Sequence to fold (183 residues):
Amino acid sequence: MMPMQKDRRSYLTYSAELADEVCALVAEGKSLRQVTELTGMPSRRAVQYWLTRYPDFKEKYECAMMLLGEFWAHEIIEIADDTAGDYVITEDGRRVVDHENINRARLKVDARKWLLSKILPNRYGDRVTADVNVGVGPEALRGMPEEKKRARVMELLAFAATLQVPTETIDEGEGETATDEQQ
Fold:
């Protein structure tokens, strides 16, 4: 398919076949911009509208984006492994490193890695973990000076007063639990 002129196109009515073609091209590595510039393809605006209007298309498009992510992941390896052009031969016959080519390859890899981390964050995003241990028991207060213990206890009591936790009471006759709202 040939790229289309930049002039305004008429709106293409949604069809499952056209939607499948859009998704297939995206899954094969084409950007949505590249797809929508092809003759016979819908405009970017039409595709965005279809995503909001047709749940089956949205599901297929999301799958295509996942496949595009896999395509980019494989491309990253190919770009990193490709050493062609890393060296050039000067006029006097010396072999020298072509830093421009290496930096361009680095830029391509970094761009794809960044896009992968945004499009597929669960699979390719940075893993951020937080290990938070807030001691509130008596063992957290051991070894602390008396003044700090009092201040910490007061701080915890003030915090506890801001919590809106329903208190529970047990009706001794029934053996059931009732919250404040039920009483």
Remarks:
- The mean pLDDT is 83.
